[in-house]
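Allow me, if you will, to draw on your knowledge of protein folds for a short while. I am sending you one protein, given as its amino acid sequence and as whole-number tokens for its backbone shapes. Kindly check, if you would, that the fold set down in the tokens agrees with what the sequence suggests. The record follows directly beneath this note:
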Amino acid sequence: MRGAKPQASIEQTIERDGVIRRGDRIAVACSGGADSVALVQVLTTVRKSMSLELTLAHVNHGTRESAWQDECVVLCVGASFGLPVRIVALDECRRDEAALRDARYDALARIAHASNANVVATAHHREDQSETVLLALLRGAGPEGLAGMRARRPLGEGVDLARPLLTIAADDLRCVCHVHALPYAVDPSNADRGLRRNALRAALEALRPLFPGLDAAVARTAELLAAERAGSSRAGLRREVRAALAAQEDLRDVDFTHIEAAVRAIERGGSGRFHMKSGVELRIDRGVIVGSDDRP
């Protein structure tokens, strides 16, 4: 996705993945930060082709003096795109991270109902998913926690919570803002290492140069666990491909992307030879695995 036009790739991801569905009426959670402003830009671009209705939803937590500036950014973004904006201010009382999160989602659900939206869309991205999964790991969570944030789940009566950017890098979202000269706010509380998520974020920043694929790998693991827990058809096809290779002792060192290419071919009833690794191909005939050729 790196390059001059990351937005085109993000749009293709949203149109392909099905997290946002044609005809959705969306309350776009916009904090005023770069990620959520980029989400507004992208959803506005695909609005016509996907028959979407958009409203900006802003929750003012009232936890810092500069919160009103975030609100001003959201109002400016709404005016720039000609979108209605609904704002809810939370009670001014001290809350922990979990309580604030619950209060925020409750407020977003209320905005969705007030604007006749069936979806609240948030701008959680790939690095957010890494942090969520690793925080769960450090808490000693089970498979549900390690599956990370779900791409789409019920939020309240008649309203889903959608996270269409979970596979998108934060740098690509900032790039969208810069390319379109969009305003965005910077949350100073992100520098507070006293918050667990911020402390973990700093540690991950130090690790990423040593593990360039860190976020993609964590996101992939979360996706696989979520699919297995849900018993999805794609999870079953992944097991089928892996079993076919394992039966011939060819599974070792097969890259995940090659597994996924074979799975997608089976899903669409395709045929062909799929290169799995050096010297190993998987043959698929009209959506059925028929064997592995060209063995060393």
